[in-house]
Amino acid sequence: MGYTRSPLRRGALPAFGTALVLFGVAACSGSGSGPDTGPQTVTLWVASPTEAFTTNLVNAYNKTHKNQVKVTGIPDDGFLQKVGTAAGARTLPDIVVSDVVYMPNYTSKGVFLDLTSRVKALPFAGSIAPSHIAAGTWNGKEYGIPHKLASSVLFYNKTLFKKAGLDPDKPPANFTELLSAAKAIRALGPDTYGFDFGGNCGGCTAYTMFPYMWAGGVDILAEQGKKANFDNNTVKQVFALYKQMWDAGVMPSNAMTQDGSTWANNFESGNVGMMAQGSAIVGALQKQDSFDWGVAHLMAPDGSGGSTFVGGDSAAISASSEHADAAWDFLQWTLQEQQQIDIVAKNGDLPVRTDLSGNQYTAKDPRTKFIMDGVATGKTPFALPFGQAFNDPTGPWIAMVRGAVFGAKPDDAVRTGQQTIQSALDSAQ
Question: Where is the signal peptide (predicted)?
């Protein structure tokens, strides 16, 4: 699974590219309504990195409702395969909580119940994270709702900025400024680096590089994930920035081999000036007091715009559920203001509703408010073979990244990547 869900929650790191099963099941039919005549037990599957988050919501619901929700955590590296097998056998649980990037994989095969009318009837429907709703929409019908959000931004070490003679309250606004700042921070000493990234991690790099491309105006997965658009100047500028930083020695040497397992360690230790990362590290950064830090948009090469990859998890009801009404009662309850503020935001996570970005917990820290405000215009990529094309450690995306950043012929790497990613998209249609 990708770090789109919960990048770098220590002890719960997803394994990239290890669950790449595409569903070959026949479209599941069924009304999704069943004998919900009395107290019901609703079953829910969630991948292990999100299990604790989901359990907090479930425990609060179970204390106040006759219906009960039973959570089963599934090891992350076997989640897709287990769901695929259960879908084929029509033995799915009532609710499936999945990494949002895999929603098209499910919805295109009829695995989930159409929730369109239920979602649209919610009084706050217009404020539910729009990119998550779009990722769960197939042929105009909505099949999922956001369950947990994660958003990527540029984190920077204000303490190192100040030591390097840079303005700690003025983060880089374009690629020229970013490269200059990285070099200035690297000059502070042999153990201090200007920038870091997960250079051997497909999900990490998709999560943090896509926003530069979107900010530059490029629809890299156009026509609802049918057309790859990577062989262009904007994408080449993104890779060129990273290659310049790598060649200039402003990155630590383990950036080349970083597979995501210790992705944030160097930045959290205070030895790295800047890093594109996910909102899941905010809690750890807030708890430390060894350095000051800030956040900024992941910007277009010329600074003309900014964007974010809105990752995390979506929740859906299986098409074969016999307790769809009870399942929906839980799901819509999780979206309500009290739960989003008193459980989700209070715990340091991002609420899934843009109208709640000013709640007392999120707004208490301007940095978390900044991250949350980006959700309204952020994007979630849409591609049927996202796992094999982008998260697979041997897939075409990471091969393109590594060739363009660490290789001698970056243009060739981009050209080949464009072709192989397009082939993956074509084969999944």
Answer: 1-26
Say if CB 42 and CB 70 are below 8 A apart.
yes
User: What is the chain's length?
Assistant: 429
What is the rounded distance in angstroms from the CA atom of residue 115 to the CA atom of residue 126? 15
Give the CA radius of gyration of the chain.
21
Return the bridge partners of 122, or none: none
Q: Which two tokens stand for residue 231?
A: 């062989």
How does pLDDT run across 74-121, given as a tens digit for each residue?
A: 998 889 899 999 999 999 999 999 999 999 999 999 999 999 999 999
Helices (H) and strands (E) in the chain, counts: 18, 14
The sign of the CA dihedral 344, 346, 350, 354 is positive
All domains in the chain, ordered by first residue: 41-150+310-376 (3.40.190.10), 151-309+385-428 (3.40.190.10)
**b/e per residue, 43-78, with b = 16+ CB within 10 A?**
bbbbbbbbbbbbebbbebbbeebebebebebbebbb
d(CA 158, CA 168): 5
- DSSP symbol at 276: E
Q: At what angle do helices 202-215 and 233-247 cross, to 10 degrees?
A: 120
| Separation between Cα atoms, residue 42 and residue 37, nearest integer Å | 13
Model confidence, pTM: 0.91
Rounded to an integer, what distance in angstroms lies between the CA atom of residue 219 and that of residue 228?
Answer: 8
Q: Buried b vs exposed e over 150-183: b needs ≥16 C-beta within 10 Å?
A: bbbbbbbbbebbebbebebeebbbebeebbebbb
Euclidean distance between CA atoms 63 and 43, whole angstroms: 16
- The C-alpha atoms of residue 149 and residue 130 are separated, in whole angstroms, by 12
Per-residue pLDDT tens digits for 324-380: 999 999 999 999 999 999 999 999 999 999 999 999 999 999 999 999 999 999 999
Q: How many CB atoms lie within 10 A of CB 217?
A: 12
The per-residue DSSP string of 302-343 comes to TSS-EE-BEEEEEEEEBTT-S-HHHHHHHHHHHHSHHHIIII
In sequence order, the 6+-apart residues with CB closer than 8 A to the CB of 34 are 321, 322, 323, 324, 325
Q: Tell me, what's the pLDDT at 6? A: 41
For CA atoms 373, 401, 382, 300, the dihedral sign is positive
Alpha-carbon span 217 to 162, nearest angstrom: 32
